[in-house]
Design goal:
alpha+beta, globular, 14 strands, Nucleoside Triphosphate Pyrophosphohydrolase, five-stranded mixed sheet
Length: 258
């Protein structure tokens, strides 16, 4: 087992950065990062970004300096590399998620300001903000938990049409499809059983939208949700902070910054 770090050569935000990885285990990587005082917001799905000024301290703490090419090779060989498009940000890899119908999946949570590949999207959710910054949530009967409104895509629908229809069915709110801003996606990888992602439809698109009114009335025309309400950011975390998808929503609501 080894913790690896490459030279601080990647440039972003007016600084140079290194990448810190494990060639064996993400838990080992998280523990090492905590020991070095590297904040959790520096994690990018399969590595931590480390600013140049911390490089020496991280090496002194036991990270093995390697060329960037070797770091990438060993990360790929470990099976821990998170595949994503350039510019997308890996947030977390959640293993062994048990779904209500008995399926078990691993889920990659990825922040992105670009639409996911529509050919792969099987569902969409929307973070709906009102004019005061509160958020609409619904309680899913199937999942027996609170979350953003949304659901599965029907044949012939675009991803935005899917999102608009589901939000209206679950909350009564009528959204403007072009106003929906992509903020990330979840990639499902089956471990046990088969789901809609088994045939290449493996992405759940997450959108965000801001309304011009404060706490408009919420209604529902379907029985797939049992309740709905407006909540503050802190109330949202209390309701949803233990769900497997929370790290992605948290990243969207509180973007990382060194």
């Amino acid at each position: 087992m080894a913790i690896l770090i490459d030279p601080p050569r990647a440039e972003a935000h007016g600084r140079r950065w290194s990448h810190l990885v494990s060639d064996t285990d993400l838990d080992e990587l998280h523990a090492f990062a905590r020991g070095c005082g590297i904040p959790a917001r520096g994690f990018e799905g399969d590595h931590y970004d480390v600013p140049e000024e911390r490089y020496g301290a991280v090496v002194a703490a036991g990270a093995e300096p390697v060329p960037a090419r070797d770091l990438l090779r060993r990360l790929v060989a470990s099976g821990l590399r998170m595949q994503k498009r350039r510019g997308d940000k890996g947030v977390a890899r959640v293993r062994g998620v048990h779904l209500p119908d008995g399926l078990v999946v691993d889920v990659d949570l990825i922040a992105s300001a670009r639409d996911a590949d529509p050919e792969r999207v099987f569902a969409a959710l929307v973070l709906v903000h009102d004019a005061a910054g509160d958020l609409a949530v619904v309680r899913s009967v199937w999942r027996d938990e609170w979350g953003a409104p949304g659901g599965g895509r029907e044949p012939g629908e675009s991803v935005r049409e899917n999102a608009v229809r589901e939000v209206e069915e679950e909350t009564g709110l009528v959204l403007d499809g072009p106003a929906l801003q992509p903020v990330g996606y979840e990639r499902f990888r089956p471990v046990e059983g088969r789901g809609p992602w088994s045939d290449g439809h493996d992405l759940l698109q997450l959108f965000e939208v801001h309304l011009a009114t404060t706490r408009p009335a919420l209604t529902s025309a379907h029985d797939d949700t049992s309740d709905r309400r407006w909540v503050t950011r802190d109330e949202l975390e209390r309701l949803c902070g233990t769900t497997f998808w929370w790290p992605l929503v948290e990243r969207v609501l509180s973007p990382p910054a060194w």
